[in-house]
Specification:
The protein contains no helices and 15 strands. By secondary structure, the protein is mainly β. It has one domain (about 10-155). A five-stranded mixed β-sheet has the order 6-5-2-1-8, with no helix packed on it. Strands 9, 10, 11, 12 and 13 form a five-stranded antiparallel β-sheet that branches. Strand 11 and strand 12 (about 125) form a beta hairpin.
Length: about 170
C-alpha cells in the first residue's frame, strides 16, 4: 500500500503540513486498510481510495529533536482521497499562530469534517472548538462550498451539518 503503510516514515504520511519550524504528519499508527470507494456518493467517485485505520498527527521539528504525537484521531478513522499522494495541509495564520486544516474526506454533500492543528513557538497542538451547546469538539463540519479563511484576524468558517450534528456559523 503506497502512501499510508509505515507509520514511522514521513514518505508514508497520508497528509503533510510544511512549516518553517517543522512538519505535521498525519499517518497510521500501524498499517491502514485501503480499498476503492467502489460507487459514486457524497464522499467521492467510485475510483477514489478509502483508507481506514488508527491515525495520529505527529510534529517533527525542523531543528531535530524528538517527534511528538499531537493528537490521535478516532478509532477506525476514514480518509477518502482521489489518489495515493499525501494531502498537503492548508496553512492559515491567525495572530501569532499558524493553523493547519486537515480534511480527511476531500468532498461531501453536507459538511467537510475538519480538524485544526496549531503551530506556535516550535510546538504543535490540536485546536478545540468551543461550541455554544455541548462540550468542546476536536472537529467541525465545514460547508463544502465555502472554505475556511481569515479576515481581520478572525477565522471565518461556514458550518455544515456533519454526521454528528456538529455545526458552526
Amino acid at each position: 500500500m503506497i502512501g499510508r503503510g509505515d507509520a514511522g516514515r514521513e514518505s508514508e504520511a497520508g497528509a503533510i503540513g510544511t512549516h518553517p519550524e517543522g512538519h505535521l504528519l498525519i499517518k497510521p499508527d500501524s498499517n491502514a486498510n485501503v480499498r476503492p470507494l467502489g460507487a459514486p456518493s457524497c464522499y467521492g467517485l467510485e475510483t477514489d481510495l478509502s483508507w481506514t485505520g488508527n491515525y495520529e498527527a505527529w510534529w517533527e521539528p525542523a531543528a531535530g529533536g524528538p517527534s511528538a504525537k499531537v493528537v490521535t484521531f478516532p478509532v477506525d478513522f476514514e480518509i477518502i482521497q482521489p489518489s495515493e499522494e499525501p494531502v498537503k495541509l492548508q496553512m492559515i495564520t491567525l495572530g501569532d499562530t499558524n493553523l493547519f486544516a486537515y480534511v480527511p474526506r476531500y468532498t461531501d454533500c453536507h459538511a467537510l469534517e475538519t480538524y485544526l492543528l496549531g503551530i506556535e513557538g516550535g510546538q504543535a497542538f490540536p485546536i478545540a472548538f468551543d461550541l455554544k451547546s455541548g462540550p468542546p469538539s476536536s472537529r467541525i463540519g465545514q460547508h463544502p462550498q465555502h472554505p475556511l479563511r481569515v479576515e481581520n484576524d478572525e477565522l471565518i468558517l461556514y458550518g455544515g451539518v456533519d454526521y454528528a450534528n456538529i455545526s458552526a456559523h
